Amino acid sequence: MSAHSFTRRLTQADLAKLYQAGEKVSMFTCYDASFARLLDGAGVDTLLIGDSLGNVIQGHDTTLPVTVTDIAYHTAAVKRGSEHAFILADMPFGSYQESPEQAFRNAATLMAAGAQMVKLEGGAEMAATVEFLTHRGIPVCGHLGLTPQSVHALGGYKVQGKGEAAAQRLKDDALLLQKAGATMLVLEAIPAALAAEVTASLNIITIGIGAGKDCSGQVLVLHDAFDIPPGKKAKFVRNFMEGASSLHDAALRAVAAIKDGSYPAPEHTYAG
């Protein structure tokens, strides 16, 4: 079962069935209708309108300048360009940290633009906000590990969860987010063994990016996976254009590699 099996748009319940059946969930970042159509046609399960658009679309050094208006605009474009994929939208920096009520107002804007779920970064400090949103009908995906919106607080783009104390804090945060009502969790740039442990401790979908092969699924940043632009990439990036005959072929290869577990390979993962 995959996105190709559906004649309609996937729902949160469909993703849960994939997870329960032991099938890896494929996710790509996406920002426009054309790539949405291409990725949808390749069977990608979930399209994430990531605040990474600040880097790859707008040319900023960080994701911090991205606004709710930006995410809503790109969410609507991705929704129009796709037919089957589940639509997940990032809550940008400053749009949810002030209060649960602020988060609800901005999440409602993204849902009205076409999102079926919103993603926010943070652990225990965000649990009350996650609970507030989910109790009001807004599905939430959490995000732990390397949280790009906290790049300055973290001192740069570094692997997280190293050391016993940091690992335990991340495990605790994951359980708190699940208890608060999150039904998906992105784990970014953490040791593979830690990601495996977190995934085993939860009954919700975990999506890895630089977090090893044992997560419930993987998310690929569109521009990294297609080597746009070419150049040095993070350790966890694989260029799926190598050996591909077209962008569509590369997307098919990427989905297949996630589904069969060949991506990420050991060279794409971090040790503890």
Extended strand count: 8
Strand percentage: 5-15%
CATH topology: TIM Barrel
CATH architecture: Alpha-Beta Barrel
* Number of separate domains: 1
So what's the CATH class? Alpha Beta
For CATH, the homologous superfamily is named as Phosphoenolpyruvate-binding domains
Strands side by side in the biggest sheet: 1-2-3-4-5-6-7-8
Q: Helix content range of the residues, please? A: 25-40%
Number of helices: 11
Low-confidence stretches: none
Largest sheet: 8 strands, parallel, barrel
Quaternary organisation of the protein chains:
single chain
**Structural classification:** alpha/beta
Gyration radius from CA atoms, angstroms: 17 Å
Global outline:
globular
Series of secondary-structure elements, N-terminal to C-terminal: HEHEHHEHEHEHHEHEEHH
End-to-end separation = 34 Å
What does this structure look like?
With 272 residues, the chain is of the alpha/beta class. The chain has one domain (3-262): TIM Barrel (Alpha-Beta Barrel), CATH 3.20.20.60. Helices cover 39% and strands 14% of the residues. The chain contains eleven helices and eight strands. The chain has helices spanning 12-20, 33-41, 53-56, 68-81, 100-113, 127-134, 151-154, 164-180, 192-201, 222-225, 247-260; strands at 25-29, 46-49, 86-90, 117-119, 140-145, 184-188, 205-209, 217-220. The protein has an eight-stranded parallel β-barrel with strand order 1-2-3-4-5-6-7-8, surrounded by eight helices. The longest helix is centred in the middle third of the chain and has 17 residues, at 164-180.
